[in-house]
Amino acid sequence: MIKAVLSVLLVLVAVSSALGKPEKNIPKRGKRIPQTLSRGWGDQLIWAQTYEEALYWARSRNKPLMVIFHLEDCPHSLGMKKAFAEDKEIQRILDEDFIVLNLIYETTDKHLSPDGQYVPRILFVDPSMTVRADITGRYSNRMYAYEPSDLKLLLSNMEKAKKLLKTEL
Predict the structure, then answer these.
(1) Which letter, b or e, does each residue of 86-114 get, where b requires 16 or more Cβ atoms within 10 Å of its Cβ?
(2) Peptide bond into 22 cis (omega under 30)
(3) Nearest-angstrom CA–CA distance, 70 and 87
(4) Which of 169, 146, 152 is nearest to 64 (CA)?
C-alpha cells in the first residue's frame, strides 16, 4: 500500500515539474544573449550551427538561407564582417526574414562554390534547397564576393532572395 502511494506521488511530482517549466521563448525584438556562432557577424541573430541544420530550418520555416563563407584572420573577411554587423537594416532583415549560417570551413556541397572557394563569399539558398546561383555580387571573377562598400548591393540581393522565394514557391 505504501509503495503504491509513493509511486503515485512520485509520478505526480514528475508530471507537475515537467508541466511547470516555462518554455524558452526567444524574443523577436529586444536584447538577446549573444551567441558564439555569430563569430561577430551579428550577435543578436539566431545562427544555424551546421549547413544541414540551416537547410532544415529554411525548409521548415519557409525562409531563404544566407550562407557566409569567411576566415577569421582574412583582412577582407574582417572588413566585411565589421560593416555587415554594424548595418542595422541588414541585421533587421536577416532577423525577420532569413535563416543565417556563417562558415569558416568549406562544405561538401559543391553547389556552394560554383565559381571557386574564396572568402568572403555570400550565397543564398531557397527553401526548396536550391542554391541561388543567379543572385551575385558585382565581380565577374568572384561572383559571390562582397566588400564593405557593396552593402547596398547585398541589401538589394537580399530583397531579390525574398521576392524570388515568394514567386517560385
Answers:
(1) ebeebbebbbeebbbbbbeeeeeeeebbe
(2) no
(3) 18
(4) 169
Residue with cell 541589401: 155
Q: What share of the chain is helix, strand, coil (3-state, %, to 5)?
A: 45, 10, 45
Q: Specify the pTM.
A: 0.74
User: How many whole angstroms separate alpha carbon 84 and alpha carbon 82?
Assistant: 5
67 close to 54: Cβ distance less than 8 angstroms = yes
23-62 tens-digit pLDDT: 444 455 555 555 578 999 999 999 999 999 999 999 999 9
Q: Return the sign of the alpha-carbon dihedral for residues 90, 96, 51, 101.
A: positive
- The whole-angstrom separation of Cα 156 and Cα 136 is 10
CB 89 within 8 A of CB 151: no
* Inter-CA distances, 35 with 41, 48, 54, 90, 106, Å: 10, 10, 16, 18, 21
One-letter amino acid at 24 equals K
